[in-house]
Design brief:
single chain; alpha/beta; 3-stranded mixed β-sheet; about 15% helix
Length: about 100
Amino acid sequence: MCIGLVVLYTERLEACRDFYAGLGLTFQRERHGEGPEHYAAVLGEGVVELYPASSARPATGSLRLGLVVSAKDAAAARPARPAGRQIVTDPDGRTVEVLVR
């Protein structure tokens, strides 16, 4: 079993995209039908999507997200990440645990 999809709703779409891109995710801008423009990044066999928050879909609240990053990808991250476990916070205040191996 693996996670196939994580969707984060945010009021800071561009800032969150920049934050997660800095961890090594590569985002593409998407739009499905009449839905809002958003960003999607393939992560292994799954997808991480960043959507703009709205009254129908408020910002994703408390969440702890864990990402495993290869040492090669971590070296290319902005800023570069050392080996080991780090706890960082995204622009919406969500905890993101990054394990570089």
